Amino acid sequence: MKKLMAANWKMYKTGTEAVATVKEMAEILQGKAPEGREIIVFVPFTALEKASEAMSAIEGASTGAENMYPALEGAFTGEISPVMIKACGASWVLTGHSERRHILGESDDFVGEKTAFALANGLRVMLCIGETLEEREAGLLRNVLERQLKLGLKGVAADTPVESLAIAYEPVWAIGTGKTATTEDIVETHAICRELMREILGDKADKTPLLYGGSVKPANAGSILALDNVDGVLVGGASLKADSFTQIINA
Ligand code: PEP
Questions:
Q1: Does the global pTM surpass 0.90?
Q2: At residue 178, does pLDDT exceed 90?
Q3: Which one from 38, 49, 66, 97 is the annotated catalytic residue?
Q4: Which terminal Cβ of the chain has fewer Cβ within 10 Å, N or C?
Q5: Whose CA is nearest to atom 3 of ligand 1?
Q6: Is the CB of 171 under 6 A from ligand 1?
């Protein structure tokens, strides 16, 4: 399985800025993702079309939206449908990111609804899961991951192509804080995630990429990518600059 090297640009970059970063990435990477790597950049809606056009200069790279509403069209002011995302040239969408769960108040059920709808409408989905520090300290790690995975994948059709889904484990306390989970934390938690994925996805679980996210940087990416059950990384802050994201991609 290729390692998925994913960037989440959050609410950063205008269209012009996004294109400039993609062009810089294309130059450093000489127009091609390294062997064994697939690159995905999750881009703000307003920059998605331009960034997707620019991304076609990098073989093995694609773009995604950071959010989506589970309807094809309608009276949903401020929302974006999977049709619109695909029309921008993007093929992925992120669901369940902790900032949407905790700042925008998205429920597990709504995350599941979006995940199923996106997959049913031809987008590839990266479903994010992860516990808060309070939940971890209260011994609730497994319960939280189980609930988020079960509800997040609830409506997913059994015939969904395996390459359409990825799971990103991102401990909330490690996102944007500079605190990376320890090697032991990642190995232990990814083993739990994989076990839960097997219960829910059956045979497809081992072919479904499981990414780690949370303060991944050029200095720690190589050692994280080498761990058991780590099939890629989802990178926020360190993906904003072409130089540091390409170092991670090449780690
Ligand atoms: C993220 O936004 O998904 C993330 C992991 O952010 P950071 O790398 O900045 O912790």
A1: yes
A2: no
A3: 97
A4: N
A5: 236
A6: no
